[in-house]
Amino acid sequence: MGFLPFVFPLAELEVGQHLYWQIGNFRIHGQVFMTSWLLIGALLALVVIGTKKMERDPKGVQNLLEFLWDYIRDLARTQIGEKVYRDWMPFIGTLFLFIFVSNWGGALVPWKLIELPSGELGAPTADINTTVALALLVSLSYFYAGLSNKGLRYFEYYVHPTPIMLPFKIVEDFTKPLSLSFRLFGNILADELVVAVLVFLVPLVLPVPVMFLGLFTSAIQALIFATLAAYYIGEAVEEHH
Amino acid sequence: MPTLFLFGASEGGLFDFDATLPLMAVQVVLLTFILNALFFKPVGRVVEEREDYVNTSRAEAKKKIAEVERLETELKDQLKKARLEAQKVILEAEQDSENLYKEALALATSEANASREKARREIDSQRDEALNQLKSEADNLGDLIIERLLAKK
C-alpha cells in the first residue's frame, strides 16, 4: 500500500510498507532489525579492531576512536556538567553513534540492491518505532538522572522559578520525546524520500548534491539528538539555588 | 497490534507502531552496555592514562626546570663569590709584594747607608792618620833641617 502512487520500473517508492516478522503474538519490522544489526555489527567491528591493541601513541583506528571518545566526552561534559557526566557519557555516546551509523548507513549503503518480499531496507532511524524508542529512553533516563541525583527534590524543577511554570513543565515532559522522535524520523525519512523522488524523476547527476546534503543532515541530526538528550539530562540533574 | 495512525489500511503505514519499538529500546540499551564495556571504558582509560602521564610529565619537567634554575642561581652566586675572593686574594698578594718590596728596599737602603757611613768614617780616620803621620814627619824633617843648619854654623 504505497503512500505515494508511484509505479515505475526504474525506481519504485515504497513508503509505509514493512517486512513483518511474527514472534509469538508480536509482529516486528524485519527490515529495521536487519539493517540495524548489520550497522551495529559494523560499529562493533570498528570498535573491536580499534581497541584490540591500544597504545599510548595511538595508531590507525585507535586515533578515530579516541577522537570520537573525546568528542562525546566534550558533548556530555558541556551539557550535563562536570559532576555526573561520566555516568551518562556511554548512553549519550551510544545514542550519537547508533543514530549516526544508522543515518549514514541508510544513506551510503546501496540497500535497494537487496530485494525484500515486502518493504525495503533503509536507515533504521527512518522508522518511527526506532526514533520513539530512542526518545522514550531519553525521557526515562532524564527522569532517572533527576531522581537518582536529587531524590524527590527533583520535582522542585517543575515549580522552579514560579509555580506558574508547573503546567508548562508537565507539557514539556510530553513534548520532549515527541519532538525528539519526530525530528529525527521526519528528517531521515524526508531525506530518503527526496533522494528517491529525485532519482525517480532525474536518474542522473541531480540527486548527487541532494545526497551530500542528506549526509550532512544525517550527521547533524545525530548530533542534535545526542546534544538534546544530554541537555535534558543536564537540566534534570542541575542544582537550583 | 494497535496502529495509532493509519495510512490507508489496517496494517502498514508510516506510523505503524508494534513490538519493534520495545525491542529496539532493549537493543539500544544492550548496545549501550556493550559499547560501555568495549569502547567507552577502555578508550577512556587509555585517554585518561595519557592525560595523567602528560600532566605528571609536565609537572616533573616544571619541577626539574625550577631545580635547574635554582642550581643555576646558586652556581652564579658561588661564581660571583669566588671571583670576589680571587680579586681579594690578588689584591692582598699585590699589597704583600709591595710591602715586601718596600721593606726590602728600606733594608737595602739602610744597609747601604750604613756601609757608606762606615766606609766614610774609615776613610776619614785613615786620612786623619795619614795627615798626622805626614805632620809628624814634616815636623821631624823641619827639626832635622833646623838642627843641620844650626850645626853647620
Task: Tell me about this structure.
The complex is a heterodimer of chains A (241) and B (153). Chain A has 6 helices and 2 strands. With 241 residues, chain A is mainly alpha-helical. In chain A, helix 1 (30-51) packs across helix 2 (61-80) and helix 3 (85-108) packs antiparallel against helix 6 (207-237). The longest helix of chain A has 36 residues, at 166-201. Chain A starts with 19 loop residues before the first strand and ends with a helix. Chain B is rod-shaped. Residues 1-10 of chain B have low confidence and may be disordered. Helices cover 87% and strands 0% of the residues of chain B. The interface between A and B is large, with 51 and 39 residues.
Blueprint (SSEs and pairs):
The complex is a heterodimer of chains A (241) and B (153).
Chain A: E1 20-23, E2 26-29, H1 30-51, H2 61-80, H3 85-108, H4 128-150, H5 166-201, H6 207-237
Antiparallel strand pairs in A: 1-2
Chain B: H1 20-152
**SS summary, helix count of chain A:** 6
Strand content of chain A: under 5%
Q: Which outline of chain A best applies?
A: globular
Order of helices and strands of chain B: H
> Strand pairing plus helix content of chain A: what structural class?
mainly alpha
What's the order of the H and E elements of chain A? EEHHHHHH
- Fraction of residues in H or I helices of chain B: over 70%
- Sheet with the most strands of chain A? 2 strands, antiparallel
Record field, number of beta strands of chain B: 0
Distance between the termini of chain A: 56 Å
In quaternary terms, these chains amount to heterodimer
Instruction: Report how far apart the termini of chain B are.
Output: 201 Å
